[in-house]
Amino acid sequence: MFEYFYNEILRRTVVAFGSLFNNITIKHTDSSNNVVSEFKVPLAYGPTQKFLARLEQSPDLNKPVQITLPRMSFEFTGLTYDATRKVTQTQTFTAYSDADGETKKVYMPVPYNMAFELSIMAKLNDDALQIVEQILPYFQPSYNLTVELVNAINEKRDIPVVLENVTMQDDYEGNFSTRRVLIYTLRFTAKTYLFGPTTTSAAKDIIKKTSISYLTGDSKDNQTREVVYATEPRAIKNYTGVIVTNLTKDITTEETLITVNNSTSILKNTYLDIDGEEVYVTAKNGNVLTVRRGSDGTKISSHLAGAAIKSITTADDALIEDGDDFGFSGTTS
Question: 3-state DSSP call for residue 326?
Fold first, then answer.
């Protein structure tokens, strides 16, 4: 019944969570407040009990090296469904994939909460407090972590990481020859999303037109006014290869008047493509065109005499390729 897929979302979230704490530094100072030592606190993935077991197996202080403190460890401890972020199960969306040049379709993600525990182990209380103070101010109570969840559709989302609580434990029991361990435990919840398998979308899955209606009146049956705004994607470059004329002289990036060989087939209020720059024709006087340069965010460039001028028509709108930039043409009624 189920098909194989693996988006590595849980793994990516675990790695991203751990990366938050991989640059914690401890400094020791002397009586004159001069820094005498500075080092980065090591971070490892694993349960706290694993590190404590190494201390308990041979707690003798005379042993030269047993385990270096302070150190930190984190662990993924649980996964629960979050009904408060639920969306429609059958809703889908499409996205362009740079990897294979296709438009992919995927169902809306399922919200899940990932539980994490971060343990801080130190021998000196000041070391532990230095680490804790470098972490807590960033969580009020959450910190947004950007994670690329699905490579196939370039899906990136901000994952809120919420600090739930902080507890402290002092394992200092026995005689003076026993090692002391201070343990601060920080519990977090990462509100992530799990995506299902992605499939190649059909032509019917791509939205080609949208419209918004505004209604006014006392009731649904007594509408005094209706405004409908409809918009469709519009090409911002020539796809058909049709050349309508050529430039007769060079133009710089500042010029808005261009002279062409023959303007017969060029109409006012239309778009042209000049070496990848889209221009909008606002006026026409013989073979001299008044244009608005760099329309739809295209780069304004200098052009040499003889450069081909291509038309941008509805025929080009139908040939817009997946992943290309495009503009919009709208109507109001």
Answer: coil
> pLDDT tens digit string along 166-189?
999 876 655 555 556 788 999 999
Torsional class of 301: left (φ above 0), alpha (ψ -120 to 50), beta (otherwise)? beta
Q: What pLDDT digit, counting tens, does each position of 38-75 carry?
A: 889 988 887 766 655 655 555 554 444 445 778 899 99
Predicted pLDDT of residue 64? 42
Phi and psi at residue 204, to the nearest 5°: -70, -15
Give the residue among 244, 256, 314 at the shortest CA–CA distance from 280.
256
Q: Alpha-carbon distance 147 to 95, whole Å?
A: 17
> What residue ranges do the domains of the chain occupy?
9-90+107-196, 206-232, 235-328
Q: What are phi and psi of 313, to 5 degrees?
A: -125, -175
Alpha carbons 60 and 278: distance in angstroms, whole number: 77
Tell the CATH topology of 9-90+107-196: STM4215-like (3.30.2000)
Q: Is 165 exposed, middle or buried (0-12, 13-18, 19+ CB in 10 A)?
A: exposed
Q: What is the mean pLDDT of the chain?
A: 83
Predicted TM-score of the model (pTM): 0.62
CA 114 to chain centre: 19
Q: Are 95 and 155 in contact (CB under 8 A)?
A: yes
- Alpha carbon distance 210, 199 (integer Å): 24
> 94-135 pLDDT, tens per residue?
776 666 667 777 888 899 999 999 999 888 888 899 999 999
The two structure tokens encoding residue 160: 């809120």
Contact 268, 285 (CB under 8 A): no
Q: Which has more pLDDT, 118 or 37?
A: 118
DSSP structure string for 173-218: -SSTTBPPEEEEEEEEEEEEEE----EEPPGGGS---EEEEEEEEE
Cα 32 vs. chain centroid, distance in angstroms? 47
